[in-house]
Amino acid sequence: MTVTLADVAARARVSPATVSRVLNGNYPVASSTRERVLRAVDELDYVLNGPASSLAAATSDLVGILVNDIADPFFGIMAGAAQSEIGGPGDGSGRGGGEKLAVVCNTGGSPERELTYLTLLQRQRAAAVVLTGGALEDPAHQAAMAVKLARLADAGTRIVFCGRPPLPDTDAVVAALAFDNRGGARRLTEHLIALGHRRIGYVAGPLERTTTRHRLEGHREAMKAAGLYGDEESVTVHGPYDRSSGYDATLELLRREPEVTAVVAANDTVALGACAAVRDRGLRIPQDISVAGFDDLPFSVDAVPALTTVRLPLFEAGARAGRLAMGKETPPPGGMATIAAELMERGSTAAPAR
Amino acid sequence: MTVTLADVAARARVSPATVSRVLNGNYPVASSTRERVLRAVDELDYVLNGPASSLAAATSDLVGILVNDIADPFFGIMAGAAQSEIGGPGDGSGRGGGEKLAVVCNTGGSPERELTYLTLLQRQRAAAVVLTGGALEDPAHQAAMAVKLARLADAGTRIVFCGRPPLPDTDAVVAALAFDNRGGARRLTEHLIALGHRRIGYVAGPLERTTTRHRLEGHREAMKAAGLYGDEESVTVHGPYDRSSGYDATLELLRREPEVTAVVAANDTVALGACAAVRDRGLRIPQDISVAGFDDLPFSVDAVPALTTVRLPLFEAGARAGRLAMGKETPPPGGMATIAAELMERGSTAAPAR
DNA sequence: TACCGCATAGAAAGCGCTTGCTACGGCTGT
DNA sequence: ACAGCCGTAGCAAGCGCTTTCTATGCGGTA
């Protein structure tokens, strides 16, 4: 049936142990022998049996990357960057040895699926796991995650957070890279205030997510600092991180608070929906209403007018997370680093009309 | 160390065989026994050893989804849909049994990486593989792929193509879902011609890709049918499927052929770049130049003006591919189906000025 | 009461690989 | 010239699970 190590050994006239050692390159083998073995491998088109190998060695070459929404470039960019750092040598040029199988798992933002995927990766004895995106703030879920991650770490899995704040009471995590969502949001709102806006609507992300909360907090910090903090509830609307949510929420906002002169969206996708809503109400951007996003996804610069937003170095962060997962880079002190967010002032924000 | 089947068996006072049978549910076990076993599993927080299981059973619960670019929603949407069909019961609500680990692998469009990933999946004895996106037309690579896929199929892996034309000489593939790129492109160009355009620029995708070729062929069919087929080379520019390529190519096009009144882009992302280029040249869309895309990605409706494009049912196709990979759906006759593409007429195209 | 069959549980033989330990030359050092 | 080493290669014992085959006990029928 399929070719086994033993077949290769027979053909190369060595023992299976030797073949294994040639393939793993972790034991001295005379070069003449090595060559003979490699030739046999080639001739027989031998492919290692992963499960058998993982079982015997008690480790696997699987690395999982968990994302909330694979259709969202926010995650796609990070995942792609991480994968390129993990997925073997260079550009897959050859059989370099450290061939890892980097795979991305789509949780759809569901906590159950997140745990399910972690269990599946635990089953596979994954070498590492990268968790991207904000965390859910439900205490029950956080506790379950802490337990699961601790178990994974126990089994030797390296755990890295990317764009997610560190878990309070776990040292299972190798490193946590957190985006400075709060600072970015603060600077964005400060920019709006500097332009002269006083009444600013906020289309927030889903409740109970760290990302949502941090961005909202940054915004309110800026408002407070400017003495503009009032009945914020009436100009804040929550919803998922998607376009239609931004559209609906913005219509609602404009209906509720006609004096609003600027709308800050939870992210760029939501901002796109917000722009559409503003226009459908017959208002101009930025003359009548300023709109701002967050993340600086690739399409944001092409919006008309180009979207003012906060740039997050998604690619760099993903790549770094990948390297940390592979142990190719030493973790930051304290196992945690904050990644700066940069304000991108573009055409969708301007001084209010009056 | 970690909990094994034997530990569970000891605690439940049964044999390991019985525990295995309870977990797999493929053999009659008295309900009292089953209950006892399940309790032990719970109490010990037992997690199956995947490699051991796969080794013994000679199958694994891994399913691979190969994509060209994970940061591109085109692939993200398909992959997400496929994954949701594959990844276990419902929304991960519980331990339903058919828990598969659906993982997406990012090839970055590189043929080597594509093969590398297939080898890695073969190593893991993957249950199924879904290949998305157009194929490279390099004969050497196609041959290598055919061989590799045949081997995978031999080992029991189910192979499904999604948005990729069937391989000529392989019956290793369970099913191939191909998009009607040619027909969609033809109808799009017909629409432009009907509006009165005569000189139409085409910003094509990368060479040697089936998707690129089919879309270009559809476009030229329409041009020929209208008697407009001339020196097409001078109004066609190739480049990768990204925004900056669209921008550069369009500038080049407008420089080379000032009489062009419409630009058709290889996909929506490229179209966004094209729009930016048109505007930077001081021209208006659609009054001076019409622009059209392909795929109808979510952001396309939010472009200003909204992008005329060709809608591909990415989600539905991905979901169907997922079901086919799981054997939940019977393959179409001949193992291949063509998926219709629908023209979406929106604001970015209009009759030319004169 | 004796026999047969069914339902259920256990024993044990691997699945294909890794790796600690052992074995065996040929070289070096004295 | 002999002991001791180093460089290589093989032996064999698992890794933790699945699954075939066998054993046991029970109820029902003749």
Short description:
Chains A, B: One of its GO terms (molecular function) is DNA binding. Two copies of one chain form a homodimer. Chain A is an alpha/beta fold.
Q: What features would you describe in this structure?
A:
- The structure is a homodimer of 354-residue chains.
- Chain A is α/β, with parallel strands linked by helices and 354 residues long.
- The first copy, chain A, folds into 3 domains: 5-48, 434 Repressor (Amino-terminal Domain), CATH 1.10.260; 62-179 and 315-339, Response regulator (Rossmann fold), CATH 3.40.50; 181-311, Response regulator (Rossmann fold), CATH 3.40.50.
- Chain A is 43% helix and 15% strand.
- Chain A contains 12 helices and 12 strands.
- In chain A, strand 3, helix 7 and strand 4 (158-162) form a beta-alpha-beta unit.
- The radius of gyration of chain A is 25 Å and the shape is elongated.
- At the A-B interface, helix 4, helix 5, strand 2, helix 6 and helix 11 of A face helix 4, helix 5, strand 2, helix 6 and helix 11 of B.
- Chain A binds a DNA duplex (30 and 30 nucleotides) through helix 2 and helix 4.
- Chains A, B: Pfam families: LacI, Peripla_BP_3.
- Chains A, B: InterPro entries: HTH_LacI, LacI/GalR-like_sensor, Lambda_DNA-bd_dom_sf, Peripla_BP_I.
- Chains A, B: Residues 3-57 form the HTH lacI-type domain.
